[in-house]
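Below is how a single chain appears once it has passed through the pipeline. First comes the sequence as given, then the structure the pipeline wrote out for it. We keep one example in the README because the format questions we get most often are answered faster by looking than by reading.
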Amino acid sequence: MLRPRTSRLAFLLAVLLLPGPARPAAPEPAPDVDLWLGMYLGKLKIGYTNIRQTREEFRGAPAIRTESTSRTEMTVLGQSLVQQIRTVVLSDTKGRPVYEEFEMSSGGKTTRVIADIGQESIQCRLVTDSGESRRSIPIPPGTELAGDAYITALESGLKVGDVFHRKSFNPLTLTLDGMTVRVDRRETIEFDGAPVETLVVLTKTPMAELTTYQSLADGQALRIDAAMGITMLREPREKAMGIQPAEYRPPQDFAILTSVRSNVDLPATGRLRRLHIRLVGLPDGSFVLEDSRQRVLVRGESDGARTVTLLIRAAEFEPEKAAEMPVEDEALSRWLAPAPYVESDSVAVRRKARDIVREEKNIYRAAVALRDWVHRAMTPRADMGILRPATDVLKDPSGVCRDYSVLFAALARAAGIPCRIVGGLVLNRGDFYYHAWNEVWTGDRWTPLDCTAPDAFVDATHIKLTEGEATEMFRMGRIIGQLKAEVLAFE
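Resulting structure:
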């Protein structure tokens, strides 16, 4: 199962196209903006973004409207993937957002989020082909919200050393995310063949880190460096929307380009029992995870980059050792509850889970029955670059690894099985590719299951970097294209 594992990389481009932090609150409305950015992966043009900012009236009060539209197109393992995103943020004249619409489309599917942002909470609706769900997000007292799209550092008067801390609504994860904006330095860069003085602004969020080069002459963003080797350049509209010249043919597609190369030839059997591996380039310790099968041997640094040496052991689970349902441990209640995109309380999801599990009480046997059903029901489809809720995947069972794992998590929780979603690396075509799978609580440990694999055995080349809800996988945007791997031993 190759395609379900790899095209999730293009999906992480959405992280770079989200509304970014607003500039510091200004006493006057912002001037009108019409900014065009071409998006490049190396020399390859993969898309564009347009940000338009105007002043208007919203619900009887003066407002700043920021509308961002983007389109990306790339090849992922030989298949074309197109992703389109449109975001509208309405803010008051001090830059605090009051309303947001977010729409992301790919592969004929669309996910839409509508958010009313009040003083104490955000009331949002998630709308997909399968229906609508609602969520209320509390806003802690004293929270400073930001909402402008990409207008990170366009306020005049910024100086080196300025630091701003904000919260912003993330329409992908349906959460309030913290962010830090720091004016780092002045730097002369070459732009359109001429030297230009810029202010360099660093923006850090849980999902991405951006470096913006703002022109000191007109305050506009000239270049934005993002994760995965992606660069956005200020361009005239016609050039930004232009397609890649026909004579240019990239030597690799996006999935291969961002894979983590192995220094040895590992057997592609899916049955490795032991892997001793060193990872270099992790941004922080949150990606260093340890459990009963993945041990951390050494933590360190190499040339300023965080490193970790892991020992991963895989073995078949013995079903008779599993606990039985119902699970009454209150500490596991979170992993039995519905969550964004994991709609385990849906009538359709609960009915399907009952049909599959029937009278089985053994947690592992029930989980394997669900895994096997998802594996058989799903059709690999690599051209979907959006996160879909489980109800949508159940209605149209096709997609990539994240769709497999989201559907399984919803079915497992609906059946009474504690379940979480895991993101990390897996061996594929001789190298390591970014991937998503699941873990279920079997009584004394979290046991992995991979619905894209041919059976329930999860081999030692599954390297866990994130764990939790479906939205945790967005954090992988911070490491894609940054990691190196050194295999020390295997069997």
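Residues 3-241 form one domain.

See the next section for the split statistics.
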